[in-house]
Amino acid sequence: MALSNEIKIGSFVTGTVLLAVIFAWAIGVQNPFDRTFDFYVTYNFAGGIEVGSPVRVSGIKVGKVEKIDFYVQELQSAQNAIALKEPGSAESPKDKAVYPVRLQVSVKKEAIKAIRKDSRFYINLAGIIGERYIEITAGSLDSPLLKPDEVIAGIDPPRIDQLISQSFDLFGKIKEVIQENKGDIAKSIEHLYKLSENLNKTLGWVEKSNLFKTDLSKLTNNLIAITADVKKLTERVNSPEGEKTLKLLYDLLWRLEPLNSEEIHKFFQKEGIRARIF
Question: Taking a C-beta distance cutoff of 8 angstroms, is the pair 105, 130 a contact?
């Protein structure tokens, strides 16, 4: 009887532990207490993203990458798949199927309001040697919200190997140009050297020339004198006498405006002036 009770207690404890393990596994896999929203993002180059990599919206962590697989598109539907890509982010081969990488992304439902069809999906690096993560920019209010299980294209990250390869190609082309135009480059450098020598000689002559210094001094003094005269003239014009003189000139011109040359000629002849004025 005692042995039977021990067996019962052991079975109960074992069953309890087994249920706890199963329950913990179910919580870790399905996470029923966390309300999430799943959709898919495609890339031609994932740039080191792994399952479990964080997903951020405007710098705030809101989810993670649940699954990574190859999103195979047949030739007849490849053009539609490319049309979803950001211009310049992926090649568009016409003679073979397209095999972009598809990421299953899970985010909190509270953050889905900021994720819209015009949102951008970048692959960023946290720090210099940090982990990779997906950064989502908030979309515009007039753009429709992303739907569950919808597929949207991300923006491929830059590839360091391609940048290095392109840099080597660029340096090679620069080297070829230099070698092909070595003579012209040498002549250009020689001309620049001669030009700098002539410029130094000219500056030295200007610095040593007393005539130039004297002329410059006279020119400066004349400018100072002209400035003083202009200042005096301006002061006189702005004085009451100057304003009165300007008013008299204005009245005189206003009276002479309706007269023409014939009337002025008759006036002078009437006064006994026979000289030919006009």
Answer: no
Bridge partners of residue 38, in order along the sequence: 106
| Calpha distance 69→227 (Å, rounded) | 83
C-alpha 168: how far from chain center: 26
Q: How many CB atoms lie within 10 A of CB 47?
A: 17
DSSP 98: B
User: For 15-45, how does the pLDDT look when each residue is reduced to its tens digit (9 = 90+)?
Assistant: 787 887 787 666 655 555 557 889 999 888 8
Distances (CA, A) of 212 to 47, 197, 203, 225: 68, 21, 12, 20
Asked if residues 79 and 32 have their Cβ atoms less than 8 Å apart, the reply is no
d(CA 110, CA 271): 104
Q: Is the pLDDT of residue 13 over 80?
A: no
Distance CA 4, CA 195 (A): 111
Do 108 and 34 meet the contact criterion of CB atoms below 8 Å apart?
Answer: yes
CA-atom Rg of the chain in angstroms: 44
Closest C-alpha to 278, from 268, 265, 266: 265
Q: What pTM was computed for the model?
A: 0.45
User: Which residues is 258 bridged to in the sheet?
Assistant: none
Round to whole Å and give the CA distance between 135 and 47: 13
